[in-house]
Amino acid sequence: MDDFILYIKMGLNHVLDFSAYDHILFLIALAVVFSFHQLKKVLWLITLFTLGHTLTLALAAYGVLKIDVTIVEFLIPVTIFITAVVNIFNLKSNARKKDNINLIFALFFGLIHGLGFSNYFRMMIGREEDKLLPLIEFALGIEISQVIIVLGILIIGSVIQSTLRVTKRDWVLVTSSIVIGFVIPMMIERVFW
Question: What are the residue ranges spanned by the domains of the chain?
């Protein structure tokens, strides 16, 4: 039971660590286009991201996948940048297309984000025989923390749009632009070539 709690806490801390805010920025960029009436889609968004993240962690934990960390550390802010830019360019397109692209981003970019943590996770579980159970427990912690963050984003968006009379378009535009402002320096700082 202690290990169960330990790995869930590690998953929670992985996402909720404000000093490693790239995960939070990605969740903001993914979720900003949604609202509470799309809660089912938002839950899929979170789960798809966790699945992508967990798949690459599993491949790394079992020694199937080894990627140069410097490349991955650069690609993480690139995925955030792409998601936020697509949000801005899709402001005039229909809502279904816009929402679906973020579901695709959640899964595929989740793979890259999982790679960013794979070396640490591999060291964390060490030579344990059973790698699957810690991986599932860690993924559960990630899923819980992502639900917390995304619900926070939806609440903040709802409050700002209703009390300040900000349009959905402006909410997405300003929030995505702020995210871009944060990740451009991250990309420049992490250039690997």
Answer: 2-189
